[in-house]
Amino acid sequence: MQHYRSLEEVTLQNSWLTVGVFDGVHRGHREIIKRLTEGARANGAPSVVLTFDPHPAAALGRGEIKLLTLPDERAGLLGQMGVDVAVTERFTRELSTLSAFDYMSRLARRLGLKHLLIGYDFALGRGREGNAPRLTEIGLELGYTVEAVPALGDESGAISSTEIRKLIAVGKVAEAARLLGHPYSLQGAVMRGDQRGRKIGYPTANLETAPDKLIPAGGIYACWAVVNDEKHRAAVNIGTNPTFTPDKQTLSVEAYLLDFDRDIYDEVARLDFVERLRDELKFDSVEALVEQIGRDVEQTRQIMT
Fold first, then answer.
1. pTM score of the predicted model
2. CB distance 276 to 248 below 8 Å
3. What single-letter DSSP state applies at residue 8?
4. Which CATH superfamily does the domain covering 183-303 fall into?
5. pLDDT digits over 250-271, tens only?
């Protein structure tokens, strides 16, 4: 798959396209993308997903949005689904002022657009004027067809990135994974910490995280840690280490990899969250902390059989 950071870098013919933020690439998104890739393949056409960075709501000053997937993560998930081309377009206020016709004309010119798939509530262009009827009308003039895909839902309603963010923000990573269709992940370089874990017999990999990435609620989690394409069970602490640093405010992400003994400083690791075990606690002694870590590790081992 090819990943472009600007629409101006792309020149295609007869493409099948879907447009949206697709944050998380959740099960609802996957329904659209599956139709896109299957239809494009059947018609000998390139499948294209155009997404945005930063999140439009954040770019327009409607509040901070912590992302489920950073642009490269999103592109990677799209590639796994068989998408041929991902385009991450920079979202700006100027872009938001374009009319639906002007924006679709730009897409038609760069992509040779033939077929557009959209979600049930999709709209683009100034004032969100480009809904399904308007895009269909524009398509008659520009030479593309439009297909609207119904929402995919469950007993709680339509699956949305907003609802998944709420689950992760309170630590419900197993529920979030069910809606995503894949585990929620954090990825980053392994940094050198204060070596405190090594001193108490549980050396941890301290993960550097991007500032706009959503971090699950503080607590202890059972995860898969992926390093150099190898998967390892991991007990992960997200928190401030109150037993040692009670005044610390910023969260750290520390992973103890089970049955693992290798220096991975500066290497990139990914944590796939499986289940939340408990809250982070302040202990009266280091001995009590070590005993609890031992129980967390055993619980992780049992969950990740």
1. 0.92
2. no
3. G
4. Riboflavin kinase-like (2.40.30.30)
5. 889 999 999 998 889 899 999 9
Per DSSP, 68 falls in state S
| CATH code for residues 2-158 | 3.40.50.620
Residue type for position 90: R
Evaluate whether 47 touches 83 at the Cβ level (below 8 Å): yes
Beta strand residue intervals within the chain, DSSP E: 2-4, 15-19, 47-53, 85-90, 113-119, 145-149, 153-154, 157-158, 184-191, 205-207, 219-227, 230-239, 252-257, 268-278
Q: What is the tens place of the pLDDT at every residue in 4-48? A: 999 999 999 999 999 999 999 999 999 999 999 999 999 999 999
Are the C-beta atoms of 103 and 7 separated by less than 8 Å? no
**For residue 47, what are its two tokens?**
């499948």
Query: Is residue 155 scored above 80 in pLDDT?
Result: no
Name residue 4's amino acid.
Y
